[in-house]
Amino acid sequence: MKTRSDIVLTPIEPEDILTIQNWEPYPDEFSELDYALRKGGWLDEYAKKPDTDIFVAKKENEIIGFTILSDDNEGTEFRIAIKADKLGQGFGKAIASATIKKGFTCKQRSSIYLIVRVSNNRAKKLYKELGFVENGEIVKEINKKQISFLQMELQRC
């Protein structure tokens, strides 16, 4: 996987949300994840939550992804979305790494957790490469469907 050091994370601005909501849809392989990008998706949901940081990832001033770090009763949740035409190019690893570093250094979080669809082998592989460890499965309702998720966590060293 390529190493990307040309990614810049910045706090999200209101106009960034509209840009992301107008991205092209995900390819069929990831079509069930597309809801996260749209109106009523992750950005609308998390923008209202306290103790939440949303970052856009830019490469040469183009928004190519966004990440979320949100504190809740279970700890700090991590979420990531990459622009469809940037998938499979190493950006996910670079953006996730930069966000995790911000979470542990700037925000002083002690651990970060995430959930990933059991069927999303590409993402599970990435998260394991970043040091996340599995700690159970849960089922959540997403768009009126029951979806199985793997819970993973990363501890600050």
Task: Write up what this structure looks like.
- The chain has a single domain (8-155), classed as Aminopeptidase (3-Layer(aba) Sandwich).
- The protein starts with 7 loop residues before the first strand and ends with a strand.
- The protein contains 4 helices and 7 strands.
- The chain is α+β, with helices and mostly antiparallel strands.
Write a brief caption for the model.
By secondary structure, the chain is an alpha+beta fold. It has helices at residues 14-21, 42-47, 91-105, 121-129, and strands at 8-11, 52-59, 62-72, 75-82, 111-117, 133-142, 145-155. The protein contains four helices and seven strands; from the N terminus they run βααβββαβαββ.
Topology record:
Blueprint: E1 8-11, H1 14-21, H2 42-47, E2 52-59, E3 62-72, E4 75-82, H3 91-105, E5 111-117, H4 121-129, E6 133-142, E7 145-155
Antiparallel strand pairs: 1-2, 2-3, 3-4, 5-7, 6-7
Number of strands: 7
Q: Strand fraction band?
A: 35-45%
Helix content: 10-25%
Our count of domains comes out at: 1
| Form type | globular
Please identify, by name, the CATH architecture: 3-Layer(aba) Sandwich
CATH topology-level name: Aminopeptidase
Order of H and E elements: EHHEEEHEHEE
Return residue spans where pLDDT drops below 50 for at least 5 consecutive residues: none
The average pLDDT value, as a whole number, equals 92
First-last Cα distance: 24 Å
Instruction: Determine the structural class based on helices, strands and strand pairing.
Output: alpha+beta
Q: Number of helical runs?
A: 4
Briefly, what CATH class?
Alpha Beta
| Radius of gyration from the alpha-carbon trace, in angstroms | 15 Å
CATH superfamily placement: Gcn5-related N-acetyltransferase (GNAT)
